[in-house]
Design a protein that fits this description.
Number of helices of chain A: 0
Low-confidence stretches of chain B: none
Shape of chain B: globular
Number of strands of chain A: 11
Number of helices of chain B: 0
Number of strands of chain B: 11
Structural class of chain A: mainly beta
Order of helices and strands of chain A: EEEEEEEEEEE
Strand content of chain B: over 45%
Structural class of chain B: mainly beta
Distance between the termini of chain A: 41 Å
Largest sheet of chain B: 7 strands, mixed
Largest interface: A-B, 24 and 28 residues
Mean pLDDT of chain A: 94
Oligomer: heterodimer
Largest sheet of chain A: 6 strands, mixed
Strand content of chain A: over 45%
Low-confidence stretches of chain A: none
Helix content of chain B: under 10%
């Protein structure tokens, strides 16, 4: 059974710091991995999608890496800003699944202090 | 191109009533997913539908819950005889074929059972 774990559960940093959020999964046979952002009381915003054949994806100040063999992904946020404060969710799609359903981690709640 | 639209955003029901949650996928998307986020828990997959077909309902509770995605109109998640434990945020996501493409989420419906 695929399990997704995100560490740390919460993180508080001063503005301007670079930071790394971690995601691990128990079954390396994934199809792809998607990072999301969720603001309090809001829906999920897709940040990055990494296919199983890729090592990393970049979008602006965000960089996500994937090491499928070790079951790990990281989300790197450069020069953090107070507007980055949110919960960040990692989710995987199983390679054996033909339904595309996502299995989510519990999330990392990030607070960036001005 | 409007995003995934869910309504209502907030829904209050008394125990024993029925709840109907609606989801209109993004234009051109034929895959719809429903997820539930219980308080203090992560997002859990409930059901995956294509037009007029339920493809995977492995995450749906066996009783009181049903979902449909008719040929015309939005997808509906229906909860009969609601109980307090049904209080949660219900999110809909949609994607284009093939099945493992990027998923886009709606703002969610927050159901409160009193």
């Amino acid at each position: 059974k695929q399990e997704v774990t995100q560490i740390p559960a919460a993180l508080s940093v001063p503005e301007g710091e670079n930071l790394v959020l971690n995601c691990s999964f128990t079954d390396s046979a994934i199809y792809n991995l998607q990072w999301f952002r969720q603001d309090p009381g809001k829906g999920l915003t897709s940040l990055l999608l990494i296919q199983s054949s890729q090592r990393e994806q970049t979008s602006g100040r965000l960089n996500a890496s994937l090491d499928k063999s070790s079951g790990r992904s990281t989300l790197y946020i450069a020069a953090s800003q107070p507007g980055d404060s949110a919960t960040y969710l990692c989710a995987v799609r199983l390679g054996s699944s033909n339904t595309g359903k996502l299995i989510f981690g519990q999330g990392t709640t990030l607070q960036v202090k001005p | 191109n409007a995003g995934v639209m869910q309504n209502p955003r907030h829904l209050v029901r008394r125990r024993g009533q029925e709840a109907r949650l609606r989801c209109s996928p993004m234009k051109g998307h034929s895959h719809v997913y429903w997820y539930r986020q219980l308080p203090e828990e992560g997002l859990k997959f409930m059901v995956y539908l294509q037009k007029e077909n339920i493809i995977d309902e492995s995450g749906m509770p066996k009783e009181r819950f049903s979902a449909e995605f008719p040929k015309e109109g939005p997808s509906i998640l229906r909860i009969q005889q609601v109980v307090r434990g049904d209080s949660a945020a219900y999110f809909c996501a949609s994607s284009q074929p093939p099945v493992n493409t990027e998923a886009f989420f709606g703002q969610g419906t927050r159901l409160t059972v009193v």
